[in-house]
Structure formats: structure tokens, C-alpha cells
Amino acid sequence: MTNPTAAELIGRSNRLGSDPRVTNYAGGNTSAKGTDTDPATGEEVELLWVKGSGGDLGTLTEPGLAVLRLDRLRALSGVYPGVEREDEMVAAFDYTLFGKGGAAPSIDTAMHGLVDAAHVDHLHPDSGIAFATAADGEELTKKAFGDRVVWVPWRRPGWQLGEDIAAIKRENPDAIGCILGGHGITAWGDTSDDAEANSLWIIETAERYIAEHGRSEPFGPALDGYAPLTPEERRARAAAIAPTLRGLVSTDRPQVGHFTDADVVLDFLSSAEHARLAALGTSCPDHFLRTKVTPMLLDLPATATLEEQLERLHSLHEEYRADYQAYYDRYATAESPSIRGADPLVVLIPGVGMFSYGANKQTARVAGEFYINAINVMRGAEAISTYAPIPESEKFRIEYWALEEAKLQRMPKPKPLATRVALVTGAASGIGKAIATRLAAEGACVVIADLDLDKAQAAAAELGGTDVAIGVQANVTDEVQVQAAVDAAVLAFGGLDLVVNNAGLSLSKSLLETTVADWDLQHNVMAKGSFLVSRAAAKALIDQKLGGDIVYISSKNSIFAGPNNIAYSATKADQAHQVRLLAAELGEHGIKVNGINPDGVVRGSGIFAGGWGAKRAAVYGVPEEELGAYYAKRTLLGREVLPENVANAVFVLCTSDLSHTTGLHIPVDAGVAAAFLR
Ligand SMILES: NC(=O)c1ccc[n+]([C@@H]2O[C@H](COP(=O)([O-])OP(=O)(O)OC[C@H]3O[C@@H](n4cnc5c(N)ncnc54)[C@H](O)[C@@H]3O)[C@@H](O)[C@H]2O)c1
Ligand SMILES: [Zn+2]
């Protein structure tokens, strides 16, 4: 059963963490001190519940809390070897755990344990960090908060910072919290409600002070030529830039992207001071692993042409990598972890917006959210003073901190298709849906394109949130809609790696029954549709220079000849030859093109449910509901083919195990001798 103190802490944490003004994603931590019965002795013991390492306050639950024995934690002060060796204290936390201790204690645990208050909040609010990064933050803190909030000079989080803040609380009985230079805020209270109210009071007082005393144009006047493009122009330009940029920032390792054209970003990039401020980089310690010390800024006006922008991005990227390597070399010591790649994680394009990157969509999105926090911080700091983040050497000490490295080493191994962005046509139903499901389960980001937007979005929602999959409307017979689907993919996930031409339909008719409309419809959706999708996708894949996969869901009927199938089988044969033609043409770009020949996939198939099944059953003289079993009996393996079997083949084709295979068709038909490839 949850201890009431812990339950109260979860409630407060969730309220604080769900307000982006209060803290950034997974930033900050909260704690409560209380008592519980020690099962070993039956005695009441004093405990500290504190948010564990890496968790998010907004979504915190009990397993996310670390639980420590307060007496033993405080006893560590007696063995603390001094600031030079403060990192060793993290291992010492293990000897203070209550029971199994819950989540891993974070570096901030010392601050929570040592400060003599029952409830402590440590937060990263934009308004508080604006004070923390103001050149004269100490004086401003006095002016804005009087004796109630005390300035603590910058120090990397750890045991010593905990000792410092505990001393401040002892020496300033009227204080309710402090501003941590270069970093954030800490507030405390005797009750959970007091701590929460004190946190909010500091945040709101800082906001009010900035609003009342701040300059009106902290980022300076508008810059000529840097005004935002119209929303349509921005999206079109971002989609055109995305593949090339994603290729560049994936120089060291492939990354997923996130794009935003939020007003805060466009406003910052259109103002005179943006280049100076962007070069100063971010400040709060949470940021460095997520955004790197500085973003890459395109130093061209929004009025520049696409070609000018792409050319400049290439040279800026080279400069960025050289600068980052130099930064690493300047500060790395023999003990430092090795460089984690020199590509930028945030790229700013005036007039257009911001791209951010990471090892998966959530990480990429959060990097973008962090940079928006950084813009807000810079605006506040510049409004009341001059933005002065912590020195670069300290940024390095955070970014390449052995404790941060240890966290990274503990991360689970990425899934086989992690960082890959897939577009599957006709994926709201049947085989396409099974393919999308499998690709997502293997770590890919998936775009589900289908005729009906609601159905596409519903299918995407079944796979998880928009960090996993999105649904878009696209009729593959329409050139404009196909391009829009590819654009949506590169805007949602930064680029494109894996395309599955699956959309299709089937009308079982004899030659004499087949109308011109029947012929055109099937050829338009399958032969022409996959040509249009492959063409639009190949442009992005070629720009990206990261290779890629195009897979066609063709059919056994592309080679097998039977009655009542003229239009369908002919267009399937067309698709099958597109595989070979494109394999031959796109090989030089590292793009593999392969096909799959399924047969008799009855379960889940809209094609079978929509009349084709009834007609096929009539052709074979079996009841429709027994069609799957009938097909199974015809096969060499005697097995029914399911949508998942086709999805498995797509997965295998796209893994690195088949990196040297292109122009191939894989039959997924449980063995049909008449359709053997030769
Ligand atoms: N089911 C089988 O036995 C079988 C066998 C061999 C090949 N195939 C092929 O597999 C693919 C998927 O078939 P399924 O059985 O899952 O069928 P399905 O009807 O369940 O799914 C096809 C999807 O394609 C979509 N679609 C149709 N026209 C479209 C268009 N113009 N633009 C965008 N989307 C469109 C449909 O809305 C549907 O969601 C088809 O290409 C089909 O020819 C199926
Ligand atoms: Zn912090």
C-alpha cells in the first residue's frame, strides 16, 4: 500500500510537472520526508521519497520514486570526501536505500535529503532560469524576491550543491527557496502544499518581474528578410530541406528528426539578436545531452532560395563538426568518455522553423521542446539583463560527466529498425496494417497512408502516439497527394528510409466482363500508384544519401496465370517489373528495391471481405468462410497465409541481414509450385 506521504508527493509532482512553465520534460525533481514501519524491526523509521533518475514529474508514479533511509543518507555527510570526489557519493546512496530502494536515486538526491524541510521541489522554470542566467542575477534576485529567495552561485549538481543549499536554508530562516545560478530553482515547505505554493510563487514572481521591468523587445528589432514565410511556404520549404539536412546530421549515426514552426521560434529567428544569442548556447544542465551546447544556425535570410540554403547548410555542417570536435579536444581529459558524435541536434532555419534530432522521435521532439525553453530563458534574461549562460568548460563537465555517461550506458539496446522512418501505403487495413504494426514494433517510425484520413489515423493510434506512427490521407493515384504524404513523413520524422507499396484492390473478372474502368482503376492504384510513390520517395532517399528500401507488395498472380484475373494480375506483373527496373536504377544510391509475392491472405483482408473472396470461393466451389482453409490445402506446406507472414518478410528484407539483396521477390504463399520463381 502506498505511504500517504508518497501519495501526496506523487500528486504534487504530477501537478507541477504537467505545466510547461514550471519545468521542462523530465526536468527537476521533488521529494518528501515522512515515516514508515521498517518490516525488519517493526519500528518507525524516517524516510525520504524522491523522484528517481531520469523520470518525468508530470507522469511520475510510485515506482518512479527512490526511497531512502533519512538517517543513513544524512550520515553520509560524515564520510563525504570533499567536492573533488563528490561523484563517489552516488554509489554510497546504495547503502541508504529502504528495502530495494525503488527507482535509482538521481544526483539531486543529496540536495533533497540535506535540506532541512519536509518537502522540497527542484525545478527548471523558464522564468526562474532567466534570473539564473542573467549577468547580474544575484542583484536581480534580491530586487525581485527580497529575503525570501537566496542566490546560489553556479555549481555542478552533486553532494556539495546539496550541502550549500542546506546551509542557505539554515542561515536564512525567512527564505522559502533559492535561485541556482545557471541552472534553476529550489523551493521548500513544511507541508506539501507549502512547498508547491512556494515553488509557484517564485515562478510567478519571476514572471511578473520580467513582465513589469523587462525591455519590450529583448531580441532586438525585426531583421529585414528574416520575417516568417507563410505557413504553406514554411512547410513546403521545410519538407524540401528535411531530407538533405537529415542526411547531414546523420553523418556519425542515423537520427530521427522533429520539425516545429512555433511562433516562439520564428519570432526569435526574425529578430536582430538571434545569431549572437544562439551562439551563446543553452544553460540548464538538463539541456546539453539533448540539444548539444549550441544549435546550428542557418545564417541566411528567409528570402534565400532553396539551393542557396542547401549549399550553405552543407558548409555550416562541416564548420559545426569541426567546432564541436575542437570544443571536445579543448576540455576532454584522459578520463572523459569518448566524443558522442559531432553532428548538431538542433538546426535553426530563419523564416521556416527548427529541426531537432535524436535517436528516436521522442528524443528528437524533446530536444526541440528544450530549445524552445532555451529561447524563453534567453528572452527573459535579455529583457531584464544580459543573457550569460555558464562557461563552456562547465558545459563540457556536464555533457561528458561520467555519471551522465553511465546513464547512457544503461539505456536498452536499440531495436533493429530504430531511427528508420517507414511509409506504408494502404496501411489502414489488412496486410499493410500488419506491416505497419511489425515495423513499429521493431522500432521504426511509421507513416500510414490510406484513402480515408480517419481510418489512417485510427490505425496509427493503435500503434501508439504520434512519436510512433501518424496517419495521412493519400490516394496513391494522385501525384499531388502522394507528394503530400512524403512531405508529411519528412516533416513528422525528419526523413524517409523505407517505403512499402502496398495499396491495392482486386476485382475478379473474366476478360469479357472487365470494363475499361476496371482496368484503369486497378492499373492506376497499383502500377501507376506505386510508380508515383516510388518516384516521390526516391527523391527524398537520394537527397538524404542514407540508402533506403523500397518494397512492393506484388502477388503470386504477378507470375501465375489463372482465369478471371486479367487486370489485377497484369498490373501486379507491372509492379513486379518495377521492382527489377528500380533495383537496377537506384542501386547506385544504395537504395534496395525488393518485392513480396503473397497469396491467399484471407484473414483481415479488405480485398477478400469486399467481394473478391466470394467470387474466388465461387470459382473454386467452396463456401466463402472456408476459403482460407481451401487456399491452405492447395499449398505445399499446407498452411494458411496470414497478414503477419507478409509483414515478417518485409521486416527481413529491410534489416541489415539482407543488406546485399536487391531486385528479389520473396514468395509468401506457403508454397505454390506453379508460382516458383525461376
Ligand atoms: N490478400 C491477399 O491475398 C493478397 C495476395 C497478394 C497480394 N495482395 C496485395 O496486398 C496488398 C494489400 O491487400 P489487402 O489484402 O491487405 O487488402 P485491403 O483491402 O485489406 O487493404 C488495402 C488497403 O489499400 C487501400 N487503398 C486502396 N486503394 C487505394 C488508393 N488509391 N490509395 C491509397 N490507398 C488505397 C485501401 O483503403 C485498404 O486500406 C494489395 O496490393 C494486394 O493486391 C494481397
Ligand atoms: Zn536541475
Overall outline: elongated
DSSP summary: helix tally: 24
Helix content: 40-55%
Q: How are the strands of the biggest sheet laid out side by side?
A: 4-3-2-1-5-8-7-6
Overview of this structure, please?
This protein has 678 residues and is of the alpha/beta class. The protein is 46% helix and 15% strand. It contains 24 helices and 19 strands. The strands form 3 sheets. The chain has an 8-stranded mixed β-sheet with strand order 4-3-2-1-5-8-7-6, sandwiched between helices. Helix 5 (126-132) crosses helix 14 and helix 20 runs parallel beside helix 21 (566-586). The longest helix has 29 residues, at 516-544. Bound molecules: nicotinamide-adenine-dinucleotide and zinc ion. Nicotinamide-adenine-dinucleotide is lined by residues 425-426, 428-432, 450-451, 474-477, 502-506, 525, 529, 553, 555, 598-601, 605-608.
Write the layout of secondary structure elements.
Layout: H1 4-17, E1 29-37, E2 44-51, E3 65-69, H2 70-75, H3 88-92, E4 97-102, H4 109-114, E5 119-123, H5 126-132, H6 137-145, E6 149-152, H7 159-171, E7 177-180, E8 184-189, H8 192-213, H9 231-249, E9 256-260, H10 263-269, H11 274-280, H12 287-291, E10 296-297, H13 306-331, E11 346-349, E12 353-358, H14 361-384, H15 392-399, H16 402-410, E13 421-425, H17 430-441, E14 445-450, H18 453-463, E15 469-473, H19 479-493, E16 498-501, H20 516-544, E17 548-553, H21 566-586, E18 591-598, H22 606-620, H23 627-634, H24 643-654, E19 665-668
Parallel strand pairs: 6-7, 10-11, 13-14, 13-16, 14-15, 16-17, 17-18, 18-19
Antiparallel strand pairs: 1-2, 1-5, 2-3, 3-4, 5-8, 7-8, 9-12, 11-12
The chain binds nicotinamide-adenine-dinucleotide and zinc ion.
